[in-house]
Amino acid sequence: MEVTSYGQSDIGRVRERNEDACLLQGTRSVFAVADGLGGLPEGQLASTTALSILERELDKRGIPRDWKPLFHKLNAEIVVLGRRLSPETGIGTTLTSAALRGDRLEITHVGDSALYRFRPEGMEKLTTDHTLEEEIRSRPDYNPLIPIPRRHSHVLTRCLGQIEDLEIDTRVETAVPGDRFILCTDGITLAITPEEIHPRVLAAASPEAVVRELIALANERGGRDNATAVAIFVD
């Protein structure tokens, strides 16, 4: 299988700094996005540091068989950095990675940055947002007739840097020729629905074309947040 990819991060039209970041290691087929928590200090440093440590560990040890220990290491280093930079609150960032090992897609995820798979016959979100809203929806006593306050969709229940004993989601999927994957931060998903992304990614001539289109559209719709997307095409 041939894998092509492109990633871009944009500050948007409202924020004073870009607290998103992305990582593409094409030779290893490892891709990641991170979104620093804007409600805490040093969001930009949190996201870029997480990806720098990830890249360092990949360069040192190669692709791990088990991604959880690597994410725990990243989390521990971000916790230590947060204690030094902001002892009262710490710092935090989301981190979602996708690694292709042959036809095996290995997903590791903390926070609310998302990974979608698009095929001609349909689409699927391969990550679950670690937000208060999703936690409420997953409870056995959840009543869909009771509205959930909109603010709960922005309250993270998990992120790197805030919890030492962090629970990390992992998932393995099989990639097939024709698959199109989009890794993105919520600056994309808050402005553009997956249903709108689906035809655009299938029609795109290249990963770069669809990433640029999504970021431009997010900005056209106000650019209220930083917007980061990585497109991965499998052929």
Can you describe this structure in just a few lines?
With 235 residues, the chain is α+β, with helices and mostly antiparallel strands.
Description of the molecule:
The chain is an alpha+beta fold and 235 residues long. It has one domain: Phosphatase 2c, domain 1 (4-Layer Sandwich), CATH 3.60.40. The chain contains 6 helices and 10 strands; from the N terminus they run E-E-E-H-H-E-E-E-E-H-E-E-H-H-H-E. It has helices at residues 43-61, 67-85, 132-138, 186-189, 194-203, 207-220; strands at residues 3-10, 20-25, 30-35, 95-101, 104-110, 114-119, 122-125, 169-174, 180-184, 227-234. The strands form 2 sheets. A 5-stranded antiparallel sheet has the order 1-10-9-6-7. A 5-stranded antiparallel sheet has the order 2-3-4-5-8, with helices on one face. Helix 1 (43-61) packs antiparallel against helix 2 (67-85). The mean pLDDT is 92.
